[in-house]
Amino acid sequence: MEREELETLVFQSITLNGIFDHVLIFWGLIKAPFVVPLLRLMVNICLVMSVMLFVERVYMGIVKLFIKLLRRKPEKIYKWEAMQAEDLESGSLAYPMVLVQIPMYNEREVYQFSIGAACGLSWPSDRIIVQVLDDSTDLAIKDLVEVECMKWASKGINIKYEIRDNRNGYKAGALKQGLKHSYVSQCDFVAIFDADFQPEPDFLMRTIPFFVHNPDIGLVQARWKFDNADECLMTRMQEMSLNYHFIVEQEVGSQTYAFFGFNGTAGVWRIKTLIDAGGWKDRTTVEDMDLAVRATLQGWKFVFVDDIRVKSELPSTFKAFRYQQHRWSCGPANLFKKMAAEIATNKKVNLWKKLYVLYSFFFVRKIVAHIVTFTFYCVVLPLSCLVAEVDVPIWGVVYIPTTITILNAVGTPRSLHLVVFWVVFENVMAMHRTKGTIIGLLEIGRVNEWVVTEKLGDASKTKASSSVPVLSNAPAKKSSSAIWGRLNGLEISFGVFMLFCAWYDFNFGRYHYYIYLFLQSIAFFVVGVGYVGTLVPNK
Fold it and tell me: What is the predicted pLDDT for the residue at 375?
């Protein structure tokens, strides 16, 4: 019996060795004629894209520096005069009519806060209409939202509770339908807030004057402020990325070309601009960006005001964040495909603005940035450690990414010590963004998938409110299927790949990237097993 077992083990060993030998022989045959040239080509393509991204980031950094040094504020660039306080009490007709739209979908945790904040805006009561657009499919939540609207209506607020019998067009469809009501015809401007956004009372007092004194302004966008940025490491990483987006990308676009992508919330539109642009369209998952591009092609100007900040909530579970990032990467790529020719042939804006929108705004930021981040740092660079014949210049591996990282990190000084975590986490998310970008460009698979970002609200506020039913906090036992469902196979696979490359580079490599490769593999594993940051479960 023991002899038979020994023979079996020897046979298996010979078989495995034979397979390994065949793999090595096959690798030797294809390496020189196929692998090396292909990898060199990929390295060169990635270096070109890296330079494109580097130039874009440095350019925006320089412009932002001049904006800071010259203290260029929107109130100084455009005519801005405060609304007269004495008119507020009398409800003067000098105040334009404003519509406030709050689209929501099963927002149990946050609906009270957004409705309360909108109803608390400082504006003459006879010159404002609050419109709650409820697409909820949960009847219990629907009833709660309607009761909340009735409560504010009893206090004298002009609030409208509007529902639809379908969810066609998702958010874009709800906003479009909301503008069709007869009472909207008396409104000049529309402010939009998602269900987790809470504007300060003076929001309209600070934004509407831009429209009143500058007839060519079509949009005023405020900055987001994050209530739960300190909830976990993942929310801190998001804060770093979004702060750069607002502080640099939005402000530079506003001050140089009077154009940037509408963020979908915390902004005010001139209704005439909406009409000129053709209204809301649901052809992509970024209806806000779609509207902004069409409006700028009609010659309207946009203003970003960094000093006006609106409280909001960041996704605190990886599942919610992943769905959001898919929408934010797939949608712009799909929109670029649909509108590139229209932008290029437009006659109402000058050549430089068209180049800015096509090259800088779309191509570099929405396509190149995602693809090069994942392809170069998670595929090409690790592979180059396995193929000694392929050289990757140090300026492409160290100098360019270091500069880009520093330019991004300075927007959130309090998180500078977390920059390494941010780099490896962004590289993991770049995989999902690249996938979304390709889906958007090719218009395949989940190109029009819309998953509403889950909002958890402020637990203390929810518990303090007796009118909101609170679900049981008793810990639930997780089934094995739930645990397996939390695993992300693609991330785990890349974690294994990066770990192998780190081991190979440590033992046989000449680049000594093994520390980066090891850290990146850990990031893939952490996300892959369903935990991000400070052990936030992927629920």
Answer: 97
Euclidean distance between CA atoms 63 and 70, whole angstroms: 10
Q: Are 462 and 402 in contact (CB under 8 A)?
A: no
Neighbours of 375 (CB within 10 A): 18
3-class DSSP assignment, residue 457: coil
**Could you report the per-residue pLDDT of 155-174, keeping only the tens digit for each?**
999 999 999 988 899 999 99
Ramachandran class of 346: left when φ > 0, alpha when ψ lies in -120 to 50, beta otherwise = beta
DSSP state of 477: P
Check if 135 is active-site.
Answer: yes
Note the pTM of the prediction, 2 decimals: 0.88
pLDDT for residue 535 is more than 50: no
CB count in 10 Å sphere of residue 187: 18
The contacts of residue 108 (CB under 8 Å, 6+ apart) are 138, 141, 144, 468
Query: What are the phi and psi torsion angles at 469 (to 5°)?
Result: -60, 135
What is the pLDDT confidence band of residue 482, given thresholds at 50, 70 and 90? Answer: low
Residue 6 is predicted with a pLDDT of 52
CB 439, CB 332: distance < 8 Å: no
Per-residue pLDDT tens for 282-335? 999 999 999 999 999 999 999 999 999 999 999 988 888 989 999 999 999 999
Which of 134, 135, 290, 505 is the catalytic position?
135
Q: Regarding beta strands 159-163 and 217-226, do their DSSP bridges make them parallel or antiparallel, or are they unpaired?
A: unpaired
Pick the catalytic residue from 282, 288, 290, 505.
288
Structure tokens at 368: 């190149």
**Count of other CB atoms within 10 angstroms of residue 365:** 19
CA–CA separation, 355 and 361 (whole Å):
9
Say if strands 301-312 and 189-192 run parallel, antiparallel, or are unpaired: unpaired
Cα–Cα distance for residue pair 459/470, rounded to 1 Å: 10
Taking residues 227-252, what's their average pLDDT?
94
Contact 325, 333 (CB under 8 A): no
Decide if 134 is catalytic: no
Helix axes 419-442, 318-344, angle to 10 degrees: 50
Q: One-letter amino acid identity for 19? A: I
How far is Cα 289 from Cα 333, in angstroms, rounded to an integer?
11
The two tokens of residue 162 are 């509007």
At CB < 8 A and 24+ separation, what contacts does 164-171 make?
Answer: 164/135, 167/105, 167/135, 167/137, 168/282, 169/280, 169/282, 169/287, 170/135, 170/282, 170/450, 171/103, 171/264, 171/287, 171/450
CB atoms near residue 379 (< 10 Å): 18
pLDDT at 446 over 70: yes
